[in-house]
Amino acid sequence: MDVSTRRALQVWLALVVLTLLTWAVGRAGLGGGPVIAGILLSVAVKGQMVADVFMGLRAVRSPWRWMVSGWLLMVLALIGLAFFTGET
Amino acid sequence: MEQIASHPAAGQKKALPGDFAIWIFIYAELLVFGIFFLAYAYTRAQHVELFNTYQQHLNRESGAINTLVLITSSYFVVMAVAAIRRGAAGHCTRWLILAVLSGSVFVWIKLAEFAAKHAEGITLSTNTFYMFYLSLTFFHFMHVLMGMVILSVVALKAYRGAYNAQEHTGVETGASYWHMVDLVWIILFPLVYVLH
Amino acid sequence: MKYQSQAVAKPYFIAAIGLFVGQILFGLVMGLQYVMGDFLFPEIPFNVARMVHTNLLIVWLLFGFMGAAYFLVPEETEHELHSPLLAKVLFWVFLVAGALTVLGYLLVPYARLAELTMNDLLPTMGREFLEQPTITKIGIVVVALGFLYNIGVTILAGRKTVVSMVLLTGLVGLAVMFLFSFYNPINVVDDKFYWWWVVHLWVEGVWELILASILAFVLIKVTGVDREVIEKWMYVIIAMALISGIIGTGHHYYWIGAPEYWQWWGSIFSALEPIPFFMMTVFAFNMVNRRRREHPNKAAVLWALGTAVMAFLGAGVWGFLHTLAPVNYYTHGSQITAAHGHMAFYGAYVMIVLTIISYAMPILRGQEAADPRAQVLEMWSFWLMTVSMVFITLFLTGAGVLQVWLQRFTDNPQPFMVVQEKIEVFYWLREAAGLVFLLGLILYVAAFFVKGGERVMASNAVADTA
Ligand code: HEM
Ligand code: HEM
Ligand SMILES: [Fe+2]
């Protein structure tokens, strides 16, 4: 197994773990500010891993790469904002 | 699909994997999904009670399993690309078939979920939460089907020996699209099924 | 002219320009009626003038599209047109049917026209843009079938290029969508659905394919840029146009009795519709910047670039302005709609037809490009028409904003007619801009009659490139 396929396997594992974590949080019925922030952060990490390693954007010239990362961060930040303003 | 002639991203660092045209789609799709997600989040902010209540009625397990399924199939696609870069067309084909098979697992689980909601008489007009839940998941569902079609075509071409270690733009093109479908679901699942 | 049969395009282009003049005259009549209600009463009531204005628009654009196809397809397929005779016969059929229909509008009351043409057998009349008597509609379908047969057989027999395949798809789509006009449901919600499936799926769907292919054809010819580059752009533009445009139909479902979720679907997808128009602009400028030759027909290049810009402004920017449901809630059916309708139709479809005419007419008359003096005149007409259309749009937008504000948005909404009086000044200005438009159009026609000395284009072109 060469470096790149090993990295892909590591990313896969990390994605699985984070997903199970998210599911467990949902199952436990946890919610509220810190939980939301934590989950969104984990989504940011997951998304960036998919973009960088699976899509292979890490090696790509920056504007194209940043358009995906920027999208990810912006969407997650704005989602976070919406959830905090909606907190009753 | 052949590479776009003389497009500007052919600089020092690498160009985008696959055909440049697919990336225009990917960016456009990300834009639509982004707008859809934000529409969900900001509408929820005005109906927190409603969203929190009906979120409880979703099948979180099937959402989580589907996330695992998509992540795994994305991994298979990565392996398919790695295989063809080595020139192993046979391996590439097999990984692609595995990816399509996992895609169909996603489809089955999703269909079961839709069927359950349908049996409860839930439609787009039931309430705002279900409108978003059904719209978002259905729109994503269509992308999964589309991605499966693309990957199947690529698999078939790989099987017929259309790709090799030097020329495999088609594989990378299909792979890029499939990862986008995965990426979007990675946000969609926590947003709609978990966050409250 | 490379192929003899391309010549059949010429009468189509001439008829298109003739009807265009008629359309504008009726626009001016209506513009005056807006501020002087009894102008030409009772000879030409506003509703009749409106019908003539919009129907002539559609008919002359169809003439233009058909002419474009007859010109472009032989050249793309490298094959003579299947039947030039059929094209000539259909030309006369279409022209006579169109003329009779317009005369019908003008000479007999609409209800009587409906009776005379036995509308009750298959009622299709009475909807904007689709007012034609049923037999005219049938005539249009017959002409369209003959035309598509002629073009289709030619394409099948010859070289198949992306440009001609996309054009054919767009033209087939145009004919197919028109079939929705034959069904006129009693239920008003259904009725609106069918109407929009013609109107919206035309201008924000299949017509965009026609637009993209004609634009690509002209750009290939005047820039000499590689076909492959242009074709890749076309695929992407077309896919984006169809995906956003088809679901984007939802931006007309907000208030017609369709389910509420259309406010979301319509808003989100139609908000993407400007993207293909924007890509077309980038594409056109990109191609011209990369040009490998200086084509002597400068006017055609100007028209092509103008189309790309104005289509984006009219459809993309002015469309986006009122496409989101919360905005459209206030602007629906106001002068903002009319502002957008004018700039979009002009920028996209009027200008693309004028582009292909500008490119093809000199060739059909045996020159590569018109005399420089004629071109200068044509460019003047370009600027006069385009700038005055921008002003018509701005004045109508001003009228629309005030209208929406006074009549709908404030705490004390005022009645329609009270508001109309307050915004009258904008209607006067619109009429003035309309007169400038007419002047531009007159110059446009005049440019065809400019007689030059012997052609000096060749040496000119050399000087330009140097
Ligand atoms: C070249 C392309 C286009 C043309 C020729 C065009 C033309 C028109 C016309 C004539 C109408 C008025 C229909 C009526 O009688 O009610 C209209 C309505 C409308 N158009 Fe377009 N349009 C184009 C593209 C677009 C695009 C790209 C958008 C959105 C981004 C858009 C958004 C709208 C909306 C929202 C309405 C409804 C206005 C209302 O509620 O009154 N259009 N269009
Ligand atoms: C190439 C140029 C033109 C095009 C493409 C065009 C197109 C159209 C279209 C699509 C409509 C229907 C709009 C809607 O339903 O919202 C319309 C209506 C109208 N047009 Fe034009 N037009 C042009 C030039 C003019 C000119 C020069 C004038 C007058 C100065 C004019 C005056 C009007 C008026 C008064 C209406 C009726 C609006 C209403 O019902 O309130 N048009 N035109
Ligand atoms: Fe529309």
The tally of beta strands of chain A, per DSSP, is 0
Low-confidence stretches of chain A: none
User: How many individual helices of chain A?
Assistant: 3
Give the distance, in angstroms, between the N- and C-terminal Cα atoms of chain A.
51 Å
Structure summary, number of beta strands of chain C = 0
Mind summarizing the main beta sheet of chain C?
none
According to CATH, the fold-level topology of the domain at 233-461 in chain C is Cytochrome C Oxidase, Chain A
Helix/strand-derived class of chain A?
A: mainly alpha
CATH superfamily of the domain at 233-461 in chain C: Cytochrome c oxidase-like, subunit I domain
Q: Describe it for me?
A:
The complex is a heterotrimer of chains A (88), B (196) and C (466). Chain A is mainly alpha-helical and 88 residues long. Chain A has one domain. Chain A has helices spanning 3-27, 33-54, 62-86. In chain A, helix 1 (3-27) packs antiparallel against helix 2 and helix 2 packs antiparallel against helix 3. Chain B is mainly α. Chain B has helices at residues 20-46, 48-55, 60-86, 89-119, 128-159, 169-194. Chain B is elongated and about 55 Å long. Chain C has a domain at 233-461: Cytochrome C Oxidase, Chain A. Chain C has helices at residues 9-35, 46-77, 84-107, 110-116, 134-157, 162-178, 188-223, 227-248, 262-270, 274-289, 298-321, 325-331, 335-364, 372-409, 416-422, 424-447, 457-465. Chain C is globular, with a radius of gyration of 22 Å. The complex binds protoporphyrin IX containing FE (2 copies) and fe (ii) ion.
